[in-house]
Design a protein that fits this description.
This protein is an alpha+beta fold. The chain has 2 domains: 32 residues; 38 residues, no CATH class. It is 39% helix and 17% strand. The protein has 1 helix and 2 strands. Strands 1-2 form a two-stranded antiparallel ribbon. The radius of gyration is 17 Å and the shape is elongated. The chain starts with a helix and ends in a 22-residue tail after the last strand.
Length: 70
């Protein structure tokens, strides 16, 4: 299968749209004081949120799982 420049441009446009959507969503979650789960150093990590012992956001910055290669 051969990709044309048009296919590449469409793919780049789709990637850009997805990146903008994710950035906007993470910004909104931060403004609302909500947490998000993201990948850092090959592991899922909770970021953001208000720290208290009664919410999942008390795990902010803590590793939720070991990387698969350990």
């Amino acid at each position: 299968m051969t990709l044309s420049l048009e296919d590449s441009a469409k793919g780049q446009a789709a990637l850009n749209a997805l990146q903008r959507a994710v950035a906007k969503t993470l910004d909104n979650k931060q403004r609302l004081g909500q947490y998000a789960v993201v990948w850092q150093d090959g592991k899922p990590v909770i970021i953001g949120g208000v720290l208290d012992d009664l919410s999942p956001s008390s795990l902010v910055g803590k590793d939720l799982a070991k990387p698969l290669d350990d």
